[in-house]
Amino acid sequence: MNNEHKILIDEVVHLLQGGNAHADIKKALAGLPKKLRGAKPDKLPYSIWQLVEHIRIAQWDMLEFCKDGSHQSPKWPDSYWPKATAPESDEAWNKAVEQTNKDLDELIALVKIGDLYSKIPHGDGQTLLREALQAADHTAYHVAEIIVIRRLLGAWG
To answer: What's the total number of domains in the chain?
Structure first.
């Protein structure tokens, strides 16, 4: 691997982990009071729970698309956003957070060993690099929303 390629991989991994100007999801959720998981501030369309689930579902879909030519994406947008504003249990919350972290680790591992530049055979022009950047961008966007909701609810900082 040449040095430029290693630099690119390191930067993509750093971005996926919430590097540079972005907070990561672990930091955004740290210390969140359980009672605020499903709270929706006035006039906002979703809760922190809905954002966490949306991040999980979208990241999982991008990861599976990169790995599996027979993967079928959920129906957009209905299957990417949970209807319930709060998790049904602590177990559901923990499972969603753990799956998000596990899938992120798997995506990072794929970035480190995969071919970033070749088109994904079952796609229509996507590359692993594009999917990884999309996952990082998507997560960063919604993590910022989680932080804003926490600020509005008085539970940040």
So the answer is: 1
- Residue 76: give the domain boundaries: 3-152
Place of tokens 């961008």: 137
The two three-digit tokens of residue 8, written as one number: 């690119």
CA distances from 72 to 13, 91, 99, 138, 139 (A): 26, 26, 19, 20, 21
Is the pTM above the cut of 0.90?
Answer: yes
Residues 9-58: tens digit of each pLDDT: 999 999 999 877 788 999 999 999 999 999 999 999 999 999 999 999 99
Burial (CB count within 10 angstroms: exposed 0-12, middle 13-18, buried 19+), residue 124: exposed
Spatial separation of the C-alpha atoms in residues 123 and 53, rounded to whole Å: 25
Q: What is the C-alpha separation between 129 and 111, in angstroms, rounded?
A: 8
Residue 79 lies in a domain: yes
Residues in contact with 37: Cβ distance below 8 Å, sequence separation at least 6, in sequence order: 47, 48, 49, 86, 87, 93
Residue 157 resides in a domain = no
| CATH code, domain carrying 83 | 1.20.120.450
Angle at 130 between CA 1 and CA 139, to 5 degrees: 115
